[in-house]
Amino acid sequence: MSKSSDRVVVAVANQKGGVGKSTTTINMGAALAAMGERVLIVDGDPQSNATSGLGVDRHDVAVNTYDLILGQGDIDDGIEPTSVKDLFVVASSIDLAAAEIELVARMSREHLLRQAVDSMETDFDVVLVDCPPSLGLITVNALTAADEVLIPIQTEYYALEGLTQLLRSIEAIQSHLNPRLRIEGAVLTMYDRRTTLAAEVSAQVREHFGDVTYRTVIPRTVRLAEAPSYGEPIESFDPKSRGAVAYRSLATEWRKRHGRST
Ligand SMILES: Nc1ncnc2c1ncn2[C@@H]1O[C@H](COP(=O)(O)OP(=O)(O)OP(=O)(O)O)[C@@H](O)[C@H]1O
Ligand SMILES: [Mg+2]
């Protein structure tokens, strides 16, 4: 059994590419860690953006998400420290792309990540799973392991396009694999408040998602795009920047929603 009963597992998912999933995972994770939560990020994307963005070399780890998804290796051996106190990562691997195929013939193939997380001995308050831009078996594993889904939505034309597919997948997983899964939040990313587009998209998202839409919006800023190449979250890279302020605000809202604010 897992040690921490109030541990929350969050899948950060949207099958659309480049909407800010990895940026949100890294920076919300770091902001939560700065607020005293013990945070584990599980990199579920073969692109390994969350791993490299946290300064961890994916070639340099004993156990990665690919191993976990194939039921090999102990998750506790794959927990790597980052430059941020209380923020850890399980690295991804390019091989994770092959897992989609290798899993096809497996029994309980949707539950493998959940089994790994449930078996974890190390104590964490929050586990964030950075999903790849697809609705394949890796994302299904993440949603099966999760208590909740956080959906980053890029503030652009057709922002809601394709979300019906994601919502249908979530419903299917709720009925067949993981009844406790809920949509916890939708967050607007790369928001440029000078444009009328931003206000329009924001209104559409709020109409569609209602109260689960975060009040915090993540601005489009160069600093947020630069931080990963230094292997650091914005929280340590440039704590006073607008991006850092926004991700702290998102983390604060998340904690309030979970009754964890002090
Ligand atoms: N708020 C922001 N301001 C400026 N650039 C951003 C912001 N958020 C993300 N980016 C940049 O946009 C690109 C896509 O972001 P990110 O990698 O977080 O998206 P993703 O949804 O994880 O992508 P993928 O689907 O490929 O995994 C990256 O280059 C990132 O640095
Ligand atoms: Mg990503």
Topology (elements, then pairings):
Layout: E1 8-12, H1 21-34, E2 39-43, H2 49-53, H3 65-69, E3 79-81, E4 87-90, H4 96-102, H5 112-118, E5 126-130, H6 137-145, E6 148-154, H7 163-176, E7 182-189, H8 196-209, H9 222-226, H10 234-237, H11 242-257
Parallel strand pairs: 1-5, 1-6, 2-4, 2-5, 6-7
Antiparallel strand pairs: 3-4
Helix pairs in contact: 1-11, 5-6
Bound molecules: adenosine-5'-triphosphate (ATP) and magnesium ion.
Largest sheet: 7 strands, mixed
Task: Name the CATH homologous superfamily.
Answer: P-loop containing nucleotide triphosphate hydrolases
Helix content: 25-40%
What ligand species are in this complex? adenosine-5'-triphosphate, magnesium ion
Helix-strand pattern, N to C? EHEHHEEHHEHEHEHHHH
Helical run tally: 11
Q: Could you describe the 3D structure shown?
A:
- The protein has 262 residues and is of the alpha/beta class.
- It has a single domain, classed as Rossmann fold (3-Layer(aba) Sandwich).
- Helices cover 38% and strands 14% of the residues.
- The chain has helices spanning 21-34, 49-53, 65-69, 96-102, 112-118, 137-145, 163-176, 196-209, 222-226, 234-237, 242-257, and strands at residues 8-12, 39-43, 79-81, 87-90, 126-130, 148-154, 182-189.
- Helix 7 (163-176) links the parallel strand 6 (148-154) and strand 7 (182-189).
- The mean pLDDT is 94.
- The structure holds adenosine-5'-triphosphate and magnesium ion.
- Magnesium ion binds at residues 21-22, 45, 49, 130.
